[in-house]
């Protein structure tokens, strides 16, 4: 139990003691009030010392204070004529249960019970079956109630610690995920740069090849134009066709170089992302990414974000270490499936990420479905009518 709960419990117990003190002082004889008042002052001082934890590192002295506290209460019980003083003893027992192990506290409670009976006996009060039963019920109820309160407070403290630990792990995961995104973006830029350099090399090679071929054809045409005009014309036509073909190849390369965002194939982008996630998060991800036609950028973005969100949720909420990814084009429909082997759930309450994903899929005329059961993980299924890139 944390210090905050102990302090709250101590305040409640002290308030009860104060109310009992007022009742006892108002309803006892004048000759007993002075001794009772002194006893209550000493009792308050002992509570004050315990609450301030002056004896935190002195357990023996703390035990002595506990015994003194019990003796003062028994003295009050002996002087009290109202019977309300039993509440002080029950509060004392409850405090012992809260601050000690259950075994020690129950031994303490049993000792107080026996001593209380002896004090009542020496006061010459009647100890018949009814009185003994009432006292026993009071002590039993106080012990059970305090143990139940202690259990609930301990469970609450454990839940708070677990929640705090989960928040810390979530923060670590989010930082790792952000770092992964940065690494992925850096790698994508490097891949794009390499691809641009490759295309630039292709343009250089294409132009060099065309010029060399055309030069040879033209030289041959010049030599043959008088001897064999038909063959010379054939060489000229061949050179012309070479120029047209070369220009077409160069235009394609220039367009690819200009539209850098289309240099990478979408399936390659997904594959690169999965490999980076596997490497940086120690995950086992099986993936089957079939070749698909070039899609509209909006659809590609939906599938990519679904992959990101699904893996993130599987790690964060499902504690999953294994995933399966499937992407294919079937019956003119793009089908995407992501499965994890995490904890799963029975009652699903979608968060912002899932709701956003569903909204995007439905905006393009697709179907979004999520399935799960406890201990069977989560499966996300997306089907979108295929729209090729404009």
TrEMBL record:
Signal transduction histidine kinase subgroup 3 dimerisation and phosphoacceptor domain residues: 195-260
Assigned EC number: 2.7.13.3
Transmembrane segments: 6-25, 34-50, 70-92, 104-122, 128-149
Residue span, Histidine kinase/HSP90-like ATPase domain: 301-386
Keyword Membrane appears in the UniProt entry: yes
InterPro entries from the UniProt entry: HATPase_C_sf, HATPase_dom, Sensor_HK_TwoCompSys, Sig_transdc_His_kin_sub3_dim/P
Pfam families, sorted: HATPase_c, HisKA_3
GO molecular function: kinase activity
PANTHER family hit by this protein: NITRATE/NITRITE SENSOR PROTEIN NARX-RELATED, NITRATE_NITRITE SENSOR PROTEIN NARQ
Name listed for the protein in its UniProt record: histidine kinase
The species this protein was found in: Clostridium yunnanense
